[in-house]
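Posting for a labmate who doesn't have an account.
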Amino acid sequence: METFYFETPVASIIFLLTVITSIYAFNNANIYGKLMLHPYSVAKKQNIYQIITSGFIHKDWPHLIFNMLTYYFFAFNLERIIGHWQFALVYIGCLVLCDIPSINKHKNDFMYHSLGASGAVCGVLFSYILFFPFTKLIIFPIPIPIPAVLYGGLFLLYSSYLAKKQNDNINHDAHFYGALSGIIITAILVPNSLVSFFDALRGN
């Protein structure tokens, strides 16, 4: 972890902060009420900080592990590729932008809350895919390596399915908007990333 910290300090700090905050929330029910995103309040310009803090807590261990495994696969390498402040901008930018549609959608729903780093993690994933769309991954329970671009597509499809069920406090809609934000922010920071992506798809 020491090597990770010196080479990728931003990704390391975000990783540790997310894990520690999430575990703390597992054992302190009151923290959820303070840190979860409550669109009804945020739309009324109250508890604006929840746009950020909601991305550092998770519903349960499976939710945390799934997000942090995906983060681990891509975040550290992405920071090495694009730089420290650039990675911070991608992550925080996606964390904020992915919540805006949900705030607008649920601004009149007092009972709705959401949490999780999924939108920001999805932004990191799709930012990385712009550079290495065919990096091979082994994802349980799929027994064969699959390219990152296919993993990204499956991730969005699964998120879309869960979003339609709407039976938990996980903001699945944020996955799509996080992915889109990650692509846009990366394309602005590294203009040739889109060119490289399409060249890779064409086999150039």
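Reply:
Got it, the structure tokens are right above this. The chain has one domain: 2-202.
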